[in-house]
Structure formats: structure tokens, C-alpha cells
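Re: the request from the purification team.
They wanted to know what the chain is likely to look like in 3D before they choose a buffer screen. I agreed to run a prediction and write the result into the notebook, where they can find it.
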Amino acid sequence: MNYRKCIIWSLTGVLMMQYFPILHAYEGEDSKNIIVTRQEEVSSGGGVGTGDILVGSIYSEQEAILDKENIGQGVEGIGEGQENLESVEVVTLAQGEGVTIEDLANDPLWETSIKRIQILNGEKEYITPEVLAQIGCYKLGLSPIYKQDESGYIERMKQEGLWKEGLEFETQVSREVYSEVLAKIVAFQGSKITSQFLKEVPAGIIQTSDLQAYLSDGIYTLYTLGDVNYMSISDLKTIGFNVESVANVFYLTYEYLGAQVGEPEKKSKPLESTIATYNNQKVYVGNILTYSLKCGKEVLVPVRSLGEYFDLVIDGKRCNLVPNRYYHQQGVHLTPQTITNSLDQPIDVEVISLFWNGKTMFEEIVYISQLQPGESYPLKEEFYGREQKVIHMSTMVKAISRESETFTFPYKGYGQQTLSVWERYTQNENHDVGSLVEQLFPANKIIGTMKYATHGFEKGEKVEVWAAEDGEYYHLLKKGKKIAVPWNSVSIPPTPKAHKEQVPTPTLEAYFNSLNKTSQSPYYIWTDLYRQTTYVFEKQKGSWKLIKRMPTSTGLNKTPTPTGEFKVSGYVPAFGMEKGYRCKTALHLFGDYLYHSVLFDIEGKYVISGMSSLGERASHGCLRLSPEDSKWLYETMPLGTGVLIR
């Protein structure tokens, strides 16, 4: 497991703060163990005393301090947006000489950017082609584009038609070439190159977590998918988050006021749908760009993404949200493709952008030296803009240096690098929600093989078996027709085990309502052969609501239960006594097919067979239920009630 710790160091390596939290970050996440332990005291020398609780390893002094030699190298960009350059008067330079820093300082175009240019160019007098590409991208808010062994900035300028062919091979920029490139920069109308964020790919079925979130007097539902826990934006609003939506981007910010906003609820509002898709909207929780899931109109964010504002302290099935002011990355503001210094002093910043190529996640690091007050700097979020197989996952601040302090943040603990999340995204990328639902409720087909030619079927032909008369013949389906063939003419595959994972009620209701089924009564019965479960729905306010689930035993593969739509056509109090047993409270569908109880002795006093096999295929074609469920169905379902078996 990987661990990171929020530490504040001086540039000489002395620990400045006496109190700080520890964030438990790891590759996966299970529903019972989200995150944090707290350490109350650390000695001023940075040592760990007897009895101190530490999770994993601590950053070394060298890791905690920003590498000053790297600051200013590899800087990238995308700003708030392209500046309006139409009214800028381009300064004409004398011909024949290389362009210098002084030349740019005298050009109104670069007036607001000269400090950045000086940082990029370092001690050199003349502007190099690489620096010209960087300042061009910086001015226009353009990210570099990845190209192996070549400058990403020059590549971006080339792709945008802003470059002079062959310039990258020169050691400095002549004034003639500078004037040509500058004219293109001034005339630039915007980029058509974009990086790919998430598509609305189906994620799966959301389940209610064993954990609940606690803050003040409020108790809130957490949700799980795979090994990740999520919390709804609706509940985040209740606990005091300010949620703002701008240009299809969510910004979630939290200020601890000593009490939550709104009335505490003992139970969160249920989700309208539990079918989750990856959200194509960017969501910022403070300065963490996080992925999120959509369930109907609700948006869910990973609980670990709240780590900038809260310690997440686990106590049994409680996830206590403890406000933590030390994680909040004061002084910078992340927006799509940009970071801005909101302090009144220059800072050095290290920013991590995460990408996923379908197999591997990887980081691109931006070191920004001397980010000036109010200055916005472009990030590496479009670094792979030409490669649509690579998606931008997240952007987070790793470290901030100001004056004599460096703040290092546990970016690996914010839940953005859980491998299963991105593997699921790739696995489902070419599916839609409809196909996901069909996977939940697959059609039940028994495919047999003809042993010999008969009744229009060839030997070896694959056939769909619909029903059987035990020991006499099979009914096969062919082009919508049912054809009877001799019992011994078909080879039947083994009976499969039932799928045990049940579908959440909201998903079940949403799916069944999408089928637009009608019934002659207020009820509808659906037997799910895949799960060997019978569901009963009742029409309430125009939609079907699930009122009962019942484990069922339908036919074995060699004596299958027919699929299709039927109606309750009669009531049979008991049958089978002539065969030495009694089945009670049966609903007749058609022919010899009924819903009925498990088998009793001939007098009906005690069960002799069937209870242990409920939930698995076991019958000769009828649909067996427990005595209690069979009696309830018998006494509740009117004649004409619709029945679906699939």
C-alpha cells in the first residue's frame, strides 16, 4: 500500500508545525476501511516518539522540499482563456538580430507576461525557439502536446499553425521569424484540439454501503461500487458545501463554520436510479479535480476526494467527517486547464495531472516557479490531446512553497488512483446503459443439439428448447414457431446455477417500468429465471412498485419452464395426491404449468421436498415457492394478473 502524509517543512528541513493529520491512501478501498488516523503531536525536530501512531512511511526531507533546480522547468499551460489580442499593436523590430528579453519587455503584447518570460528564459539574453513556443502557448492558454523526444510546446505551436518550419533547429529566434510568429499569435482565433475527459460510460449498479457518514447531528448514506465509497452532492450541500455549476463544471467548496447548514437528516433521500454512469462533467472538490458518477439526476463523488476538507475517521460502521483546516490548499485555485495564485505574494507550485491509456495510469508533473499574485498558469490537461485513447483523469496540487515554508499534500490519498475504477471504465467504454441493463437481466435460453435429423432439423443443428413433456417430446422454437420433436432427439446442456446477486429495488423498478407492461389487475408477476427469483409489482400512481421478492425453483434444463408472457387463469387448492404428495395453493397459468408450494406429504401436514432447493432450478417445469409465499400469491393475485417469465 502507498501512503502519504501532509507535512509542513521549512526550506531548511525543520518541521514548522506541531500538529498535522495523516491520510491513509492506498491502491484499493474496501467498504469498511476508508481512511484516516490522526497523530496529535510530533516533536519539533521531526522525530517520532514512543506510542505515536503512523500509517505507512513519511516523506523524507528531500521529498517534502521542492527541488529548486527543477522549479521553472517543464512548465506548461492553459490559462483562463485566450486574451483579446486584436487591439494589440505589434512592435516592429530591427531586422537581422536575435530577439532579446529587452525587446519583449518593450512590446505591449508581453507587458503582463514579462516576469514569466524572464523566469522561463533564465540568465540567457536571447530568446530560444523553445522559450518562444512556451510563451506563445502561455499567452494563448495552450497546453503542450506529447511527442516523443520533442518539445510539447513546439509541437502544439506546429499543430495550431503558429510555428515557422525549421525554427526548432535554431539556437535563437531571429527578428524576422519572431515577427512572423507574433503575427500568427495575434491573429489566432482559438484551438480545436481538446483533451478527452470522461464519457458517460456505464459504471454498474450502486449499492448502499455498510458505512454511514456522520457530521454533527447528521447521518448520511454512503454508496459503494466495487471497492470505492461515494457520497451524493445533495448530502454535501446539506452538510455545508457550496456547490456552483459554471460552464458544465461543478465547484464544491467548504468552509467550516462550527455547525452544518440545513436540518440534519437521519436518512438521506433515496437515489432515483442505482444505475451509475461515469459523469462527463468535471467536478472540483476544492482544488481536487475528481471523477464522479451519475445516478439519474444525482451526482456521487468518491468519499476520499473530501480529504482536502475532512479527516475520514472510521469507527465500526461510522465514517466520521472531521473538519480539517490543514489540508485545504489555501492560496491557489484550480479550474479546468489552469491554476491561479490567489495570494498577495509569489509562490512555487507543483501540480500533478493524471492520465489513463486504457491499461496504465501515469502522472505528468508541472513545476511552476514564482507564480505571481493573480497570475493564471496553464496545466498539462491537454498533454495528450491528439491521442484520444488517453483520457485526463484528475489534476491535484502536490506542493506549494511560499516564503520559507513548503506545504506538501497527500495527493495519492484523494481516491483518484483506484485502479479498479479505471479498469471498469475501459471495460465498459463500448457499452451503453441499455446493454448494461441487459447484462443484469439476460434472456434465459436453453440451446440444445440435435442428435439426428427430424421434423425439419438437421443432425448437429443448435436449437432453442422452450418446453418439454417429460419423457415424451420437446417443444423447440424456430422462426417464431413451436415444433414438437421426440424426447431422445435432442441433447440438453447441464443445468446452470442461479445468479445470487440481487438487483437493488430502484434499478429493478426502473427496468420493469421501461418494459411498459400492462395487467388486468393492479399486480404483475415476473419470474427472473437468471436469479431464480419471482418479483411482484403493484401499480401505484401510474408506475410499477416492487412489493415482494420470492425465491423460486423453476424447471431443470431437461424439463424447462416455458418463457413468455402469460396470465393467472385459475386457482388450484391442491394437487398431486394421486402421486403420493400434495402441492398447495397453486395459480394456474396454462397447460400443466402452475405457481405452487413445495411438496408436502399427501395429507399436507409437513414438507417432504423442495425447501432446500428454492433459489435454484429443480422442478419439472412448474414454479415452486415456499408455503408462505405460495399462500400469499394464491390469496392476493386476481385472475388476469399479468405474468412474465424470462
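For the purification team: The chain has a mean pLDDT of 81.
Please add any questions underneath this entry.
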